[in-house]
Amino acid sequence: MPTPSEHTRLSLEGRLGEHARTAWPQLEQLHVRHRGAFAYVEAELADGEQVKLMRLRYTGAVGKRGFALYYAGSDRYEDSLLPTGSPTGTPADALDCACRLHLATPDI
Questions:
Q1: Which of 8, 25, 77, 98 could form a disulfide with 55 if both were Cys (CB 3.0 to 4.6 A apart)?
Q2: What are the structural domain ranges in the chain?
Q3: pTM for the full model?
């Protein structure tokens, strides 16, 4: 499994942070930690709450990452499909999917 370079890790953090600022203003900050080929993404909300969102897997392909959602009930990450039906996609697409699932309030 390929491991991203420091430059690639920093680039991912910057792009995710910029996308979060423009698309998800309710997020105060994103926290990304790296371990091997994986990047674990958490969101910090305005009230200080930390929400685990997703795990991205570096594939070696520019702009494409494997996607896994975090499930609080089982406290684990599960490989998932993006709304496009693909298990890989851009980090921004993955962030949008995870935020829609973890942060959106259903209309009931």
A1: 77
A2: 6-103
A3: 0.92
